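Narrative of activities, Objective 1.

The group set out to show that a structural description can be obtained from nothing but a protein's sequence at a throughput compatible with the screening campaign. Below is one input-output pair from the validation batch, recorded exactly as produced.
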Amino acid sequence: MPILEEQNLTEFLAEVKLNMENITDSNEEDIQEINDYIFKSSGKFIRSKLIFIYGTFLEVDRKDLVELSSATELIHLSTLIHDDIIDDAPIRRGKKTIFKKWGVTKALLYGDYLYTKTFSSLNSLQNQKIASILIQCAEKLIEGEFKQLKNIGNLNVSISDYQIVINNKTAVLFSGILESIAIYAKLEKHQVMILKDLGQEFGYAFQLNDDLSDFVNAESGKKTFKDLSENKYTFPLIVVLNNSVASNKEKIIKLIHAGDYQSVKKEIEKGDGFKKTRSERDKAIQKCIKMTKKLLADENLQYAENFLISTLKS
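Output recorded for this entry:
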């Protein structure tokens, strides 16, 4: 079984980025201008890192990992571009969003362009079962966006309703890519399910960690109270509202409507919203670690565990 070093991962991510540039290359000047703008940024490539670590440890061919990562990152990128339009977001990763720099029409067209290029690359995959999985993931992502739109401004949303949004909008792609890894590795059916479930738990923990960052402005680069200001109510707030007496719930709602987000944060703290979110996130991380132990050799467990904890508890 291979032993990974950070240099291996860095080289792999460079290959993925170059492949993404090749896939999206265009003779159309406006499209290529946006391509150049996007690929100058250094994204997190969390999905590619996940693919590389589990794919390498399960001895999947590197070329397959690069192709899977490229398609996955392009699906993710296209959803981000459309998300920014929906959210009227001016900045992403410290730079102007595509629609703020080029306008809504070009941003929409470019997002569509990425989708078509992604599906074109999926069609070239030798394993069409994996192509089918990723196409289904893309469909679920859009369905998740519709579900999230229904919840915007809804202060009566339940935890279970919010978890459905997470499963569709965030966790589904992580689950799909690890299921794809399992298929590439020709694992037994029960092992495929373990990897698929691992991806689901990874995505759940990833989203909960992101929910926390909305209130603490961690190193995620996310603006403090971004979700709250867009009337997107996330786990820390939802869990407090769901467990508050009527008078306290009414108080929190008034603070939200007044835009007094610092006071909302204090109420969430008092109601143990952050503590409960961290606990829920950490339970999901432990599930990921437990499932990983069923799949990887002992000498690779520490590297995978370190990745899980550093990524999901940032």
